[in-house]
Structure formats: C-alpha cells, structure tokens
Hints:
mainly alpha
Amino acid sequence: MYLKKVTLVLIISMIASFSFRIVGTLVPLIFQHIAIAKAAILINCFFILTHLLFWLVFYQEYISSKKPALKKSCMFAVAGSIAVSILYLKKFPLVFDSNPQFPQILASPYVDAVVPLISVVFHLVFFVLFKNALAPDEKPMLNTPVLSIIFGISIYMGLHLIVLVNFLATQRFARLEHMPQAAAMGTVPLIVVAVCLVLFFYYRFYCFIKESAYESD
C-alpha cells in the first residue's frame, strides 16, 4: 500500500511549490537569478508529478476498492490531472537550457487557459460526490476535510476564471503570478486560503489512512 506515503510526499511538495510561487509573486525579482528560477521549476514539476501520482494511487488503492460507484468521476479527475501535468511540465526542459518545439496543441494559449479550469471542475465534481458517498466510519474524520477541499477548489476555479477572462480580454495568456503586479498581489490572499483548505484535506486524509484499518485491508 503506497497511498499513505504518496499523500505525505504530496503534502510536502505542495507546501514547497506554493511557498516558492507566493514568494515569487511578492518578490518577482528573485527569479532573475537563474539558479532560483530553475529550482522553482524543478520543485513545481515534482509537485505536479506527485499530485498526479496521488490520484493514480488514490484511484487504484482507495476508490476502486472502497468507492466503486465513484470510479468514473475519479477517472475524470485523473484525466484532468494528467492534462494539467502535461501543460506544466512544458517548462521542465528550461532547467537544461533547452527549448524544444511542442505540438501545436500544446503550444496553444487557448489550451493553457481552458484546460486547468476544466480540470478543476472535474475535481470539484468528484469531491462533491465523494462527500455524499462517505461511509459512517469515514464521516467523523473526513466530512469536514472534504468540505474544506470543496471550498478550496472552488476558490481555484475562481482564480482560473480570472486567468481565462484576462486571456479573452487581452488575447495574451498569463498565469496569475505573471499578471500586472497589483493584480498578482491581490490574488495572493486567495491563493493562500485555497492552499490551506486543500492541504487540510490531504493532511486529515493522511491521518485517516494512518489511524484507520485501511492499510490492513
């Protein structure tokens, strides 16, 4: 059983990745240092891959056996995670000073603007269904954390909508941290709240796995 270990690594990598992101938003000049910029890319790529690994293991070890009725909605969430992983990993070659030519669909700013929003919607739908499917022995530890991640993902959906609206208005794709400084700074509190809400779920889910009889099944 790998779910407990993967969840712990995901928590650590998420904290590291979003700490870099928030610092970079508040002090953008820090990424003028090549070594720091490359370190941020590596940490973010590690987080993205860990997040994808969590969903694959979560589906295989938990949903398939405990919540078979949720397999389809979980697969949509997995598909969303895969799509977003591919988009974010486009930056990985920059660590090695390489700039490969990607297929046109991956180079499209429309894909960059729309796919993360679709992925967030898939995850939101899954967790709403997951909350309704919690068993009596799961509710004491997971009911509040699942509600927490639903709120966190809802905030992320709003943030991705800002990115999409900005793209449609300017015809130029920019992630939140790359928008004008005032706009980027204004989203930092929302990002912090969303990250904390999501982390709370993963931490409590880790505790649930650790304390329950799950791993002895």
